[in-house]
Please model this.
Amino acid sequence: MTTSAQTGVAPVRRLGRRHKRVLPGFGLSLGISLFFVSLVLLLPMTGLVVEASGMTWDQFWFTVTDPRVVESYKVTLWTALAASLFNGLFGLLLAWVLVRYEFPGKRLIDAVVDLPFALPTAVAGITLATLFSQNGWYGQWLAKAGLEVAFTPLGIVVAMAFTSIPFVVRTVQPVLEELSPADEEAAVSLGASDGRVFRKVIFPSLWPAMVTGVALSFTRSLGEFGAIIFIAGNTPYVSEVTSLMIFIRLQEYDYAAASAIAAMVLLASLILLFSINLWQGRYLRRLEGR
Amino acid sequence: MSITIDQISKNFGGFQALNNVSLDIPEGQLTALLGPSGSGKTTLLRIIAGLESSDSGRILFGGDDVSQLHVRDRNIGFVFQHYALFRHLTVAENIAFGLESLPRKQRPSKPDIRQRVARLLEMIQLPELAKRYPAQLSGGQKQRVALARALATQPRILLLDEPFGALDAKVRKDLRRWLRALHDEYHFTSIFVTHDQEEALELSDQVVVMSQGKVEQVNSPTGLYARPESRFVFDFLGHVNVLAGVVKGQKLVQGDAWVSLPAVRNDQEAQLYLRPHEVQLARTPCAQAKLPLRIEAISLIGSEVRIELAPEGWQSDEIWEIGMSHAEFARQNPARGEFWYAVPGVGHLFVADSAQPRTIDWQYTEAANASSM
Model:
């Protein structure tokens, strides 16, 4: 038998299971990823559950169904819903403008979209509270219209919307950019009105990205703390959010109760994200023909 | 419905895509816009469709000026190179899209639409795929669906932008034949854009050759092939063998090569264009030409034998190509590396001072004698 050096053919490696992948580094990269996911995400969550599991079921139930806490759930849910829906519309508009049109200052606006992420949330909260207070720049005009924003649940909506708008813009933007102009041209050449083109051609392509953006915006709003507490007024049973309830329990050194409430928020977020992933997977599979 | 293109010009920034183009597209015919990329053919098609506006000039459909009409009001069918099917809609929904977009008064009833879609699916021979999504179709099937979708509203004019460009050779050929048959049956006025000369010559009734935003020549495929009016058209329609030289004493001379010419003024540069099938091979030079060549490659694939030759003792920018029948090949039996002489049958002479070629017919008299030895 000739050796590989003589024939000039590279030696055939034993085709064990490990060599079947063409891309190298699968084991290493997956290992590191899982390690960090565990370290940064799973471990703290486990800690949360462990901390909460120090309570009996009755204690847990008592803590999470405390009327003041339940009221905070309600406030948090509806404000987060309002904020994320507003962001869905406004974010779509913003993404649309940034992708579809050329205008001076476009790059600047594109950069400013990320500002809520870059800004410390407390700074955002204080700024918003100042602007919307009775004699703030916006507040004085809104007050004349009979609208009170600062130190009311409406303020919570404003703070939530502000801190989570980039989610919608940044998820919708790339999808909009990738839309083929030919699809719209085809629709128009078939006689479709502008409205019909948007409803039947553009929106179905944007829809999954928009839902993701809104869901991310919603879950982010559920956990928002820094920006909200400065503008919410934090009146018990009226404008207290769940994250504030956690904070209050922490200040009382009641770590178990804080963990219990936090676990509820976590659960809500997980359920939402999972169900959206499932739904979206099915929708996208159809588009990809699987 | 006939189409008149009247002095259309279009600039993109500093680039002139179309330069004062005027053209008549006869009713019921299949017209090809043929040209290399950047020749303005797609821009012209999009202007006809109304997807692009022209800087100046008019578009008329059957005598009516439609220049100011929006694309959705022009009642055209447009087929895109990459199909542009709506991927979240099924095949049937895609085809029904145009019908459902009609204003309420003209819109057929739901059962009517379903029936029309079924008929169109029959026409494109894909009735079993009605419920599929575009991603589940092959390229050829997608383009058929795109065609059915464009034809659903019974447009007056069908425009196709490189309709077969994204398909592989076999599918392309089938689809081409199918489109031709469809066109012969329904007789809509169609224009299609292509950069493939073979496609244009095979499929169309009339070919419009475009280059650098201008129309170079309009003719039937056979007319175009037989009488190219410019060097560009010549170069673009398949391979061409060129002898570039100087006219001296009734001959076009370059190095060791020469070809006898009819009366042409002496001492001017000229190029002789010869199509692969207008040249024969001989072992010895003939009376009307001496074109020594060495055989570089022989390809037996296809209906004729293609022989590639390199000039010996003279020069040519591109390799020479000669096509001969398999019978002729068996008789002459040329082999790679051998020296042969090319015998021109018909040639097209471009003289420096005129853009139009002169066709020269030597007849194969001498060649026939030479090759039968």
In short: Residues 110 and 165 of chain A are 12 Å apart (CA to CA).
